[in-house]
Amino acid sequence: MTPQQIALVQSSWQKVVPIKEKAAELFYGKLFELDPTLKPLFKGDMTEQGRKLMGIINTAVGSLTNLGAIVPAVQEMGKRHVGYGVKDAHYDTVAAALLWTLGAGLGDAFTDEVKAAWTETYVTLATVMKQAAATVPA
Fold it and tell me: What pTM was estimated for this model as a whole?
């Protein structure tokens, strides 16, 4: 990721933080709309799940200038997701729901450049998760 992409993700995220509860609600609504078969993978309180998601994104966004510091945690998360039933194809659905949510939350501030920066961020982190997941015995 370039320093410009990191700056775009971090500055746009600051605009999402004040509406993070609504963003989480929008995200999961879109995720389940895109793939209703994902809903059974989430067994707990969805409000709490949304808080966790926003916290994870916040940590990741804050660590973009030092990705190496969070890679072990991202790898562990990828491994844990195998146990939840997450498959590689699900990452694409999550990407679509995330980008849609950011677009809805940011409105006109979600420019093509911001979208590309978020896409790069997501692909980077999802790739780490998927590679780690692939090491989990079937």
Answer: 0.93
